[in-house]
Structure formats: C-alpha cells, structure tokens
Amino acid sequence: MKKKIILLVSFIVINLAGVYAIESVAYPLKVKGNVELTRNLESSALKLGDELFNRDEIETKAESYAAIQFEDESSIMKLFPNTILNIRTEKEVEKYNKKSLLKMGELWAKVEKSTGKFEIETSTTVASVKGTNFMMKITEEGSTELLTFEGEVLFQNRITGEASSVLAGQRGVISGDQPIIVAPFDPEAIEESQREFINEEYRTIQEEVVPRTEIQETPAETPEVLEEGEEDDVEDSSSSGPFNMGGGVGAVMLGEETYTQIRLMPELVFGKFGLGLDVDLMIDSNGNVRKEDWDSFEDYVNKIYYLRYGERGDAFYGRLGGFKSYTLGHGLVMKDYSNMLRYPEYKQIGIQLGGNLPTAGMTAEVFTANAVKNEVLGGRLTIKPLGNTSIPLFNNLVLGGTIAHDRNQVKGLLDSDDDNYPDHFDDFPFDENWHNEIDHDIDFWRDIIYVSMPEHADTTGFTEWFYSDEINALRNPSFDEFGEDDITVFGVDYELPFVQNPLFTLSHYGEAAQIDGHGMGFIFPGFYSKFLIFHMNLEYRIYQDDFMPAFFDQLYDEQRAFVYTDIDSVLTKESLLEDMNKSHGWYGALTTNILNFLFVTVAYEDMYDDNDENSRSLWGKANLDTKLIPKLSKAEIGYTQTGFDKLNEFKTANAIINGSLGYSLGGNTQLVGSYQERYVDLNNDGKIKGSDETITSMSMGVEFSF
Q1: Mean pLDDT of the chain
Q2: Which of 37, 360, 385, 613 has its CA 20 to 30 A from that of 223?
C-alpha cells in the first residue's frame, strides 16, 4: 500500500508540474562579450535565444554588455561592464512585478507606465520606478547613485528608512546611513560609450563579440527619454509565484545493490522565498521502492533540497538544505565544507541564517550542517568599527570572528540505517531492526544450547547464558559505547580594502585561528586581487604544532571519524593533529577564464617545518563553456589532495576526485553522468589498496526540466 501511495503522489506532482509549469520572465536582446548566467548555483554563458527565469543572475565581465527585455515587453534593462544583476520577477495576471537586485556595477532601465511594479534594490537602497528611464550605479566606495532622465524615481535608504523623490534631471546619492543627497546633473557628463549603448535599438537579435581593439566611436547622442507616465496602482503580488519541475531517470548504486532511480525536483519561487524538493524513488530489481527512504520523520525532512529566503548580503537571509561548499572567514577555520559529500546516499538538511545587525555595520550568521542532529555547527560575526567615520581607507575596515564546533566527532562514522550502530560494527547496516548476528540467530543458538548444554536449555538458563558478559562481549558496540569527543575551532580576522573599482580590486586581510586544546595558525599578510580575467589570493601562513588549517573542510564528514581495522579502534580527525608539526609557507589561489572557454580554479599550499620538510596541498577545478561544443551540456572535473610531501600518489586518504558530463538530448532533456571517488586508509599503512579502501559513487541518467 505504501508503495502505491508514493507512486500516486509522484504522479500527482508530475501532473501539477504541467499545470503550473514555470514561465520565463525575460529574454536577452543583446549579448556582447563575456556574459555569465547563473541558475540554481550552476553557471553558463548567456546566449541569445535563452529564456530568463525568476532568480536568474546575470554577470557582465570586463568590456562586456547585456540588454534584457521582460516578457510583457514593458521594460528594458541594459547592463554595463562588471555588473551583477539578480532578476526577481513575479507575474500577477497579465502584469509582471519586477524587484531585481543590483549586486554590483551599473545599469540603465526604461520602464513603461502601468505595467506592474518596477524596483531595483541594492544591499542598502531601493529605487521604485513608475514610467521613466534612469541609471543606477554602485560606486567603488559602496554608495549608490541614481540619475533620472525623465519622470520620477522614489529613492529609499534601507538602513535609515529615509526616502526622497529624484526628479528628471536630478542625481540622488545614498551612502551608508547618511542623509540622501539630491542635486541637478548634466546629461552630457555621461560617458560617450554609455550613451551609445543606451541609445542602441534592437530590431533583430544578433549576438556580438567584443573586438580586441577599442570600441568604435560613433556620434554622441543624449540618452533616450520617456514621456512621464501615470502612476501604477498595482499592489505587491500575493501569488505563490512560478513553479518549476526538474528531475531525472537513471540508475544509482547504493552499497552493493543497483537501483532504478526516479528523481523529482520541483521548485517553487515567490518573492525572496524559494523551495526546492528532491524526491528519490529508488526501485530495486523486484519493483519495490526502497522502504528505508520512507520510514521515519527524518526521511521526509530530507526530501527538502532547499528552502531559502534572500541571500548573503541581504538585510536578512536564510537557507535550509544542502550546501556543496560553505566557508566562514578567510579559511583557517571552515573552508569549502560540504554536508553533501555522501549525497544522495546520505542526505543532510543544513540551516544557514544571517543578516545585518542595527549598529556599527555589524553582520551575523549561524550554520548547522544537519538540522535534525545539530552536530557540526558554525557562526560568524563582523563589524565595521569606523564605518560611520570619514577616515579614508579605514572606514571600510571589517573585523570578524568565526567559530566552528563538532559536538561529537565519533558520529562521523556512517550509520546507513540510523539505528545507532555504525555500519562498520553493524552486521545488518541497511536494516534498522537488527545489528548483531547473535540476536538475529537466537533460534539457532537456542537449538545449539538444547543439544550441547542441556543444563541451560530451560528459558531461564538460556536467557542467563545468552545475555552473560561472555556473550555480550561478542555483540557489536553502539555509538553510546564510544562516548563523545567534541572539537572546537575559533578565529578572528580583519579585512582592509585598498582599491575597489571595476577594473582592479585589491584588499589586504589577516586571520588567526585556534583549535581548542591544540595549536594556532595565522595568515599574515594576506592579499586578494581581481583584475582582467583573474581572481587571486596570496597568503603567508604560520602554523604551530598540533594545528591543521581548514579543519572543517570539504572532506570533513569523511574524516570526522574512521575505524583502524587492525584493532577495530575508532579514531577521529582530531587524532591526526598529533602529526602536525610547526610550519610556515605560502598559500595561493587563482581563478581564471581562458578564452571564454575554460574556467579554471587552482589553489596550492607549500609549507615547511623546522627541518625544512614539506607539507603541500593542492585543489583544482575546471569547467568547460559547453556552448562551443555541440550537444555538450555540462563538463566539469575537480581534484583535491592535502598534506603530501611529493605528489607521488594520486590516491590518498586526503584526496577526492569528482566530475560530471552532460549530453543534450534536445529540448530541456540531457543525459548526465556523475562520478566521485574518495579513499580511506583502513589499515593505516599509508597506501590505498583494494576496493575496500576506495569509496566510489557513480550515477547515470536522464535529467529534464520544464
């Protein structure tokens, strides 16, 4: 009966997707140069002919431009170089309420009258528009500028609540919690290249590529203006927003059994809220749905892929679900931590909550990797102590504090059936009802006793023997018998921006971290720079004895606890600190875009101890821009190895490799294969040998969206 109910619910969800299928809200009119589209945390090149949906994010790189038009043909937005815009649009009857977020850069917008609300937000301002055209810019200093060419724009400071109308020919400026400044401006002062882009008209859609030489000059014209329109009386949308359905059909191996996987991933977005589900139907060779996925409250909670409100940088934001990569501070405490390392075999629902506090430019954020168990926790607090002063440079100084805590590292041992017995010590790791062969085979032992030990054959005698200390010693231990072993890492840091403009960014930072009961680590000096096609970090690091950087890293869930099989002893990641010697050296990271085709991120750490012995770490990831290869929809690969002297071994206990490849089948359907390989040194001999020490996760299937 339960299987029938599950399949019936799946059928209903699929049909609801057809009824409430998501509609696109906009489309690109022009793409010039390197413009990136990010949707559901995945990025690709924006192309003419693409459809744009609510929550899509568009980023124009250096010397790149984009123009988009909303589906109701009421409004156009043009993005200048080095701009990031998050599209936030909801449909109400035949009108679109547009409340997009400008994260950085500059845009121009033309808005028709009586076509729904139109607002542009930044982290500190809101511009409400009714039938006009205007420009909006986030400056290098973090203030927001508004130029109104025609009509009227209501300009509001989200920090103080102050609002002012900026009329045609006026310039408004909002900076922090300072009063709004409104003054006249000269349209002729706008850069000539900007005027050219503003006045471009698009009778046909044609993708352009930025030339290697300077942009060709054309006679300058003043920006196009609109007639002042009537006020729009449309109220905020109260609709539930668009519905999107994705999913896939394929095969996946869990343990030693292969299942047919039907995955349904519906998504509902309304305003700043978003809800995504990940419903797996794992069907075995007998046609039965795997009951272990549906027999507890936690199983149903784990069907939530994410639930979010806003995003980092907003006045308030939160997310519940999976985190592929999560970092706090500058990386000495928690860097690239993932609660999805064993996904989808083992799902965790994490929570992130954060936002701005009312004083001194403070921000706060808290995190748990598993909302049900609350074992791996983190938090961060920042403050701009001189943010309200006019002291050059130092008014942008940010001080921060970070803490991460594991309440019990031993719980890192995998417990697939959640029966409080680790898989390694569970004779039935996928059956929550049994964990010891002795108890499972009680009838067998009763027969043995009856024949060989008649003095214990009666009920009382058998019970005394069966639960005696001698027999109990043969039973498997539960988590309770291993006790608790917690660990805490905390740190303080600062960041001081030197230069911030669209062409070049340079910041200086430092960090100190302490592993409670162990050593400390330091970053000083540290530098971050963004220029041309590069993002770069360079740090000098100093580690004391018993210190490990990024203790909470991508592999943490695998390394929290492990079993030394020779003696069946449980060890934790904390035990590895004994081998960490005092060292110092450099860390560098570089992200680059090679010819708009290959996107590469590489990080390398080279540390020396007092005996000049090396400890090196390497991280790397590469993505292809698939639009240049017919039928290829996805291509990425990543590799990580930490704590090696020489890169002699590809497979180590501190290494992980993963990748995915997608082939377009036409329409919104693609064939996708994913692979992950990680390793565990069970006998502690420093070598990875045999299939028992290699953990492989592989899947192949068809993904769809509509």
Answers
A1: 81
A2: 37
Q: Where are the domains of the chain?
A: 20-199
| pLDDT tens column, 572-593 | 999 989 988 999 999 999 999 7
Residue 513: beta bridge partners? 491, 521
Cα separation values, 701 from 78, 347, 376, 624, 672, Å: 38, 19, 32, 21, 6
Do 58 and 36 meet the contact criterion of CB atoms below 8 Å apart? yes
- Positive or negative torsion for Cα 169, 175, 181, 186: negative
Per residue in 671-685, pLDDT tens?
888 888 888 887 777
Given a contact cutoff of 8 angstroms between Cβ atoms, the answer to whether 668 and 706 are in contact is yes
| Preceding omega of 525 cis (within 30 degrees of 0) | yes
Using a cut of 0.85, tell me whether the model's pTM lies above it.
no
Q: Could you tell me where the beta strands, DSSP code E, fall in 533-668?
A: 534-543, 561-564, 569-572, 583-594, 598-609, 614-624, 632-644, 655-666
The secondary structure of residue 176, as a DSSP letter, is T
CB of 90 closer than 8 Å to CB of 237: yes
Beta bridge partners of 664: 670
Residue 205 corresponds to which tokens in the numbers above? 């859609």
| Torsion over CA: 137, 141, 144, 148 (sign) | negative
Q: For the purposes of burial, counting CB atoms within 10 Å of the CB of 327, is it exposed (0-12), middle (13-18) or buried (19 or more)?
A: middle
State residue 447's pLDDT score.
77
| Residue 460: Cβ within 10 Å count | 8
Does residue 430 sit in helix, strand or coil? Answer: coil
Q: Comparing C-alpha atoms, which of 103, 128, 105 is closest to residue 116? A: 128
What is the rounded CA–CA span in Å between residue 142 and residue 384?
A: 13
**Strand partners of residue 36:** 45, 59
Rounded to whole angstroms, how far apart are CA atoms 326 and 553?
9
Token readout for 534 is: 């590069």
Helix (H) or strand (E) holding 39: strand 35-39
pLDDT tens-digit profile of 176-213?
A: 878 888 888 887 778 888 888 888 877 544 334 333 33
State the pLDDT at residue 546. 95
All residues at 6 or more sequence positions from 486 whose CB lies less than 8 Å from its CB, including other chains: 405, 406, 407, 408, 409
Residues 6+ apart with CB under 8 A from 656: 554, 555, 638, 639, 640, 676, 677, 678, 679
Residues 511-541: pLDDT tens digits? 999 999 999 999 999 999 988 888 899 999 9
CATH class of the domain whose range is 20-199 = mainly beta
Q: What's residue 439's pLDDT?
A: 87
For residue 129, give every residue at least 6 positions away whose Cβ sits within 8 Å of its Cβ, in sequence order, or none. Answer: 109, 111, 118, 119, 120, 151, 153, 154
Question: Which residue type is seen at 696?
Answer: T
* Cβ neighbour number for residue 298 with a 10 Å cutoff: 15
Residue 84, exposed/middle/buried by CB under 10 A (0-12, 13-18, 19+)?
middle
H/E stretch holding 481: helix 479-482
Higher pLDDT, 176 or 116: 176
